[in-house]
Amino acid sequence: MRLITILLAFFIGSSVSAQKGLAHLDIQSSTVCDMCKETIEKELIYEKGVKKVNVDLATSTVHVEYDAKRNTPENLRAALIKLGYAADGTPGDAKAFAKLPACCQKEGCGKLPDEGKH
């Protein structure tokens, strides 16, 4: 019984200490459709240190939980831009944008909201 208690305490302590290095980043993007959400969540999870990605279409926000020792906010924003999506005021990569699904291109996901309006 004592061994079980010690092991349980060890595992709880390990999981708590592992979570201490996690950081949270919210990136304003220009996502508008389910394909945007699917693409970003599927691709951004492969970035170094990323633990969780969730796209909120209602607010066009990409929520990223990551290991702050393995990645930076700048690198995560750059990764989103490389996918063709805008990140915190910077437009998405034009070549990557051209490869996005038609619905994303039609809606202008990779562009900033003010682009094209004069």
Features:
118 residues; single chain; alpha+beta; 18% strand; 42% helix; 3-stranded antiparallel β-sheet; 3 strands; elongated; Alpha-Beta Plaits
Helix content percent band: 40-55%
Question: Pairing-aware structural class of the strands and helices?
Answer: alpha+beta
Shape: elongated
Supply the number of helical segments: 5
> What's the total number of strands?
3
User: Measured on Cα atoms, how large is the radius of gyration?
Assistant: 18 Å
Q: In angstroms, what separates the terminal alpha carbons?
A: 73 Å
Question: Which assembly state applies to the chains in this document?
Answer: single chain
Tally of individual domains: 1
CATH topology annotation: Alpha-Beta Plaits
Main sheet specs: 3 strands, antiparallel
Order of helices and strands: HEHEEHHH
Average of the residue pLDDT scores: 82
Q: Mind sketching the topology for me?
A:
Elements: H1 2-19, E1 22-28, H2 34-44, E2 50-56, E3 61-67, H3 73-82, H4 94-98, H5 102-107
